[in-house]
Amino acid sequence: MMKTKTKICGITEIGDALTAANAGADAIGLVFFDPSPRAVDVARAREIAAAVPAFVTLVGLFVNPDADYVRNILDQVPLDLLQFHGDESPEFCNQFGRRWIKAVRVATTDDVEDAFERYSLGSGLLLDAYDPTLYGGTGKSFDWTLIPQQRPLPLILAGGLNSDNVARAITAVKPWAVDVSGGVEIRKGVKDAARIKEFLNEVHRVDKTD
């Protein structure tokens, strides 16, 4: 069976980034959205990026940014992948010369099917729980049966995942990757090393048994 890729998002400390990497995370997420309790400034992002070992993907998360803001971050932080979590158009996402993924808040199957078509130039589609006011980080899961079987892009599952449900999620959805933030925190913006390890261990366990 294909190994399920993993991303630990909302990293704000070097130690948490290293914990995730050493426990087998494939990617680290840095949030460049000031209203988020998980946001990092450029100086901290550069420190974390410098500490992350080889072959761990560095992802920058943005929510409805100005193009100049994204370019400014890219000039200063060596991001490997961009993640757009707002209402960005495909044209906006595709202008920076970097691989990118688009996050979609799922309310219906049509939301997912339409996004697969609209954001077809992306490197993946991230599915998160729908909230009318929040662009992610809700800590809530959604109805996984809304996810279609036809997936033109790699599917990244997010939304309310933690060590208690991620094995079930992988078995039910069979995503390319899983993405967690709040599910490995003590409180918003503060990661817990034990929870990071437990989450990744669960992913690796179900990969071995399936």
Automatic annotation (TrEMBL):
Origin superkingdom: Bacteria
Pathway in which this enzyme or protein is active: Amino-acid biosynthesis; L-tryptophan biosynthesis; L-tryptophan from chorismate: step 3/5
Segments crossing the lipid bilayer: none
Residue ranges of domain N-(5'phosphoribosyl) anthranilate isomerase (PRAI) in the record: 7-201
Pfam families linked: PRAI (PF00697)
Catalytic reactions of this protein: N-(5-phospho-beta-D-ribosyl)anthranilate = 1-(2-carboxyphenylamino)-1-deoxy-D-ribulose 5-phosphate
Protein family according to the UniProt entry: Belongs to the TrpF family.
Name of the protein in question: N-(5'-phosphoribosyl)anthranilate isomerase
Species the sequence originates in: Marinobacter xestospongiae
